[in-house]
Every structure is written in C-alpha cells, then in structure tokens.
Amino acid sequence: MTQAEFARRIGISTMMLKLIEQCRRPLTDRVKDAIHLVTGIDPASWSKKRLQSTLGHPFNHGSYKWWQMVCQDENESAPKRVLNDRVKALELIGNLMQKEKKGVLWEHEFRQFILKTVQHYHLAKPLAALKREIEQSGEKWPEEAFAAPKTAGFKASIASAALKSGN
After folding, report:
1. pTM of the entire structure?
2. Which of 43, 76, 109 is the last residue of a domain?
3. CA–CA separation, 110 and 99 (whole Å)
4. Domain boundaries, position 144
5. Among the three residues 20, 46, 76, which one is the final residue of a domain in this structure?
6. What percent of the chain has a predicted confidence (pLDDT) above 90?
7. b or e along 66-83 (b: 16 or more beta carbons within 10 Å of the residue's beta carbon)?
8. 29 and 67 inside one domain
9. Span 98-121, pLDDT tens digits
10. 3-state secondary structure string, 66-100?
11. Within the chain, how many helices (H) and strands (E) appear?
12. Pick from 42, 49, 75, 86: most CB atoms within 10 A?
C-alpha cells in the first residue's frame, strides 16, 4: 500500500506519518495500536533488530498476508458473534453510571466517543442518511446522543448537578 493509504488506515494524515518517520513527532500509543492492528507487527519487537509478527513468526510479506486473513475474520465474524454482548455491555455501563450518579460525566464522554468514532470511520454521510431514514419511518432520532460535546454546557451541567446534590 502507498504511504497515503497506510496513513489513512491507521487514522492519521500523510504529513503526520512523514513527521513520525523523520522522528519529528512522537509515536503515540494510539498510533502504535493502529499500526499493530493494520500490520500485525508485535509492538514488543519494534525496538529489536527483527520485527516479529503477533502470530509468532518474523514479520514479512507472508506473515502480513496471514495477519490480513485474521483481521478479515475478526472484522467480519467477530462483530456478529459479540454484537449483542457489546450492546449489553454499553447498557450495563450506562446503568451503573446512572446508579453511581456519574451520568453527567458519562454523557460528556459518551458524546466524545460517538464524535471520535464518527470522525475516525468517516461516518458523517452514512449517519445523516440513516437519520433521514429513521425520521421518515416516524421513529425518534437520539439527537442529544449524537450532539457534539460542548465544554461550556458540560461545565454548566456539572455545576447544576453538584448544586442539586448539595456538594
């Protein structure tokens, strides 16, 4: 793949990738994780003379092809296997945050998570189409969940919650 394709796949700009290669920008943990997920290179081997594949072999074209097969299965089969578990896990965390009275913080972080996910996977257009489809069917679109977090509103909601709880 080209440098531009690789940068896109790991979620950074081509310029940022060039700066990292030139040691002018640090390699963040998020970028390291993305490189690992895309290539299968074991991060523990990055400081060694020979790169190792997470699959337990020296990293080369063959181990990269094997890694692509593993990733394809993980991307196609795994979500189908665990989709209900993921939805249930989010529900349980949401309920626990509400029970523990941490809902204000949860709301802000949830909106940040949604915004980052939409941006990272370039979902703005498909999401807009889905919104139109849902609204045309008469269902309610969860507008607040998709609203971008606003720092001032977030701070005001924290202050309001603190005043209500007497803290």
Report:
1. 0.50
2. 76
3. 16
4. 83-165
5. 76
6. 25
7. ebeeeeeeeeeeeeeeee
8. yes
9. 788 776 667 777 888 888 888 877
10. HHHHHHHHHHHCHHHHHHHHHHHHHHHHHHHHHHC
11. 9, 0
12. 42
